[in-house]
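Intended use. Records like the one below are meant for learning the mapping from a protein sequence to its folded structure. Do not use them to infer anything beyond what is encoded.
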Amino acid sequence: MFKGVLSPIITILDEQGRIDFKGNETHINRLIDNGINGILFLGSIGEFFALSMEEKKEFIKFAIKTVNKRVPVLIGTGGTVQAEVIELTRFAEQAGADAAVVISPYYFKLNTETIYQYYASIARSTSLPIVLYNFPDRTSYDLTPELVLSLVKEFDNIVGIKDTVDNISHTRKMIQLVKTERPDFSVLSGFDEYLIPNLMAGGDGVLCGLTNIIPQVFAGLMNAYAAKDLDKVAVAQAKISLLMNLYDVSQPFIAGIKGAAAATGHPFVPAVKEPATGLTTTQLQTIQELLKKAEATQS
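Structure written out for the chain above:
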């Protein structure tokens, strides 16, 4: 259902930590104009964990109106309160979203049956397509291919997964097992540098943060892969590999990604929600050096 290069978009804020709607509109248009195939709002890099329910609902309405059906709109509805996850998923459905992306419960490590029942309850609560979000580094639980297969066998509206696991063999096993049962099930890598390995294994694409910085490079990489132009594939892959170091600039990585996006696109204040902190002069310098080495230009 979802294929190609999708962007988990940053949420641009002003210096007071409020949503900057004009800045977000400009950034949304930049991604679409540069060939992005879909946008996830309120993902991890969109700081869903730091926004209130009211902020999320306002932003969802704005995002759907701004995109205006030019590309699919996915909404991150995950959280720690299941009733709120269902409420936000239903809100996204009524607002006109194309899918909800739902991370597994986090904080306590849960068993497989509990995770299954969690997703089953959400799937039963809506007719909106659901994309599972597997990020075990943040949740302490891995959505295994076997668990995902069990879910897709029972629920037709579970249509894909963002597999954010730094191990391409995990994603490959997901592709081989789940797509045997559901060939249209979308398997998207959550790691930027795994786009090509994902495609070669039979997957569908990527949903990754560097698209906020070099959307044109990812779109070009997809086109080069389709055209079997290995020279262009190699050049694009080298840029992505180098820029993966941006994830190490700040903790959490959101500030570093925002700083790089502001440097390569329309300038904005790379503010982040507390308790995260803004970038230091040294961090900004590191970002500029990485962008220069990768020859990442404005788009």
